[in-house]
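Side project, low priority. Logging it here so it doesn't get lost.
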Amino acid sequence: MSVAYFLAKRIHFAKGDDSQRVSPPAIRIAISGVAIGVAVMLITVAIVVGFKEEVRQKVIDFSGHLQMQALVSNSTYELPPVCVSDTMLGFVTRKVDVESVERFVTKPAVIKTDDDFLSVVVKGVENPEGLREKDEEEDESEWSERDVVLSKTIADKLKLKVGDEATFYFVQADKDADPFALGAENTKVKVRKLTVRDLYETHFSEIDQQMVIGSLSLMQQVSGWDDDMYSAVSITLKDFDQMNDAYWTINEMGLMDRQGVPVFVQTIEQLNPTVFAWLALLDTNVWVILILIAVVAAFTMISGLLIIILERTQMIGVLKAQGMDNRTLRKVFLWVALFLTGKGLLWGNLIGLAFCLVQWKWHIIRLDPANYYLEWVPIHLSWPMVVLINVGTIVITLLVLIGPSALVARISPTKAIQSE
């Protein structure tokens, strides 16, 4: 055991009169500063990471990580058909780590009720039932291609409920008409009466205000496409971090469908640039908060250490008179600071982790889904993140205290011993 460590323990843990020489308020302020700082850092990082994970997963659940489609400049919802065979998908899955694929067809439509109408986009998928929220009283009957799933936003606007029928008008270009002709005679309108089978809600206004989920086979029939023709195929990977590598891998394959149309993929970030740019901006906000908290905690520890040094002026003078060098004395007070930081870390972790546990289990803090896409504050906490925050706090605290600890070198043994 080093002399510096032994003396630091006597200063910090001693009972009786010795401990009374260290100002209790200074100790409490220093410990409280570290505890509050660590607790706020844990909570901040857990909330931001959780928020990013939840919002990102909502987008991925609806669109997958990658989207295969025809290589065209068309950016509308009615994409030209791409023929994606099982052989092509098998070739892709051998190159990248795919969890699932979903073929779909999107087509603009107008929903007409007795009182109102609304322009929407119908997305035909292979399994519309997968979007439903399961409950004990759900209808177990077979889904038909005449069933659709509306968002709660669309249902409220059109005053529709589960079980109601609505008329869908699909407008498309007439293949036999003159491609350079304009007007209604160059288009065809297909009408389908569809039944509202269920409702969904993502809290994304871009989706909830216009997206209707329907049958893939019905959308292929309405579009006049073959069974292997789709607007696009969404690919969900097993790991989000592999998305960019998978993007380049698939695009470098030079895939073409049976009609000779080039096939390429886009990432979910390219399809939703606004959402992911906003999520990336949250990282900057977190760093600003963490830096501010670290600065406040550092100043608190500096003031506490300076008070402790001044309270121990006579002891420093005696130790110097007995031959102890300034370097060893500085180590003594850095050890004291480390003990204080340890207590602050203990309380900070207890407070931060307790809050995260309560919020994760009971969702006591709610959010407005219209603004934040979520109904409550999400929490995502990992042990590596907790360890990193704690180790970072210790390292930063000791680094910023190296300078203030040099105050012991300025203390004169003679004056220190004579002072009261």
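Brief comment: Residues 72-261 form one domain.
Revisit when time allows.
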